Amino acid sequence: MGVKEIIFSGHAETKFEVLREHGFEVSRDVVLCAVRKPDKVEPGHKGRKVAQVNVSATHVIRVIYEEQRAAIKVITFYPGRRNRYED
């Protein structure tokens, strides 16, 4: 089977604008990269996964997603401080 399509929930779609309004712009490419080539993946609630990718010296983007049969669905994403999420 090939690479699964990545789709965004309605909430994830609105999150781009919410973060932009708070001065933290995140591109679709960064979110897609976090899912496709994460620096770290952890188990999340309800069988979801949390992918993380470093975006700066001080911040990461964390992406909550579900693996579905035909696609990967991004539920939400958020920035975090690296020192909080690094081992």
3D architecture notes:
By secondary structure, this protein is of the alpha+beta class. Helices cover 29% and strands 39% of the residues. The protein is built from three helices and five strands, in the order E-H-H-E-E-E-E-H. It has helices spanning 10-21, 28-36, 82-85, and strands spanning 5-8, 40-43, 49-54, 59-67, 71-81. A five-stranded mixed sheet has the order 1-5-4-3-2. The longest helix has 12 residues, at 10-21. The radius of gyration is 13 Å and the shape is globular. The termini are far apart. The mean pLDDT is 93.
Labels describing this entry:
87 residues, alpha+beta, five-stranded mixed sheet, 5 strands, 29% helix, 39% strand, globular
Q: Report mean pLDDT, rounded to a whole number.
A: 93
Distance between the termini: 33 Å
Record the strand order, biggest sheet. Answer: 1-5-4-3-2
* Shape, principal axes of CA atoms: globular
Total count of strands: 5
**Parts with pLDDT < 50 across at least 5 consecutive residues:** none
Which percent range describes the beta-strand content?
35-45%
Helices and strands, in N-to-C order?
Answer: EHHEEEEH
What composes the largest sheet? 5 strands, mixed
Number of helices: 3
Helix fraction? 25-40%
Secondary-structure-derived class: alpha+beta
Over the alpha carbons, how many angstroms does the gyration radius reach?
13 Å
